[in-house]
């Protein structure tokens, strides 16, 4: 894709701080550095989002993530790691080339926050069972 910034990095048309590359996958430092060591992992093949990924594409991307996460943890002495993937604008995707964020975590007060809401009171065992069956019917 001509205008995709991640394709341009992958094709070496523009610079990127690449920390890993093989035939299928590229990992490079995110220029935003949400936390020290923030890294993006992408398939070299242009794929817009998780809904366009094949199992093979996903296998290539996720096969390297443990190695990269461990290297980031060791390099920066991180206490933890968020592994984040946003798909479609409503979920926060801003670059439409599939990518996974590896965000090292150093403290509860560092510059990244994830907030989950507990909506358990809104669901009963029966309504969860119905949701489950609805999802299974679409697999």
TrEMBL record:
InterPro entries (alphabetical): HINT, Histidine_triad_CS, Histidine_triad_HIT, HIT-like, HIT-like_sf
| Residue ranges occupied by any HIT domain in the UniProt entry | 5-113
Pfam families given in the database record: HIT
Q: Where is this motif: Histidine triad motif?
A: 97-101
Which PROSITE patterns does this UniProt record tie to the protein?
HIT_1, HIT_2
Which CDD domains does the entry link to?
Answer: HINT_subgroup
Name of protein:
Histidine triad protein
Q: What is the lineage of its organism?
A: Bacteria, Bacillati, Bacillota, Erysipelotrichia, Erysipelotrichales
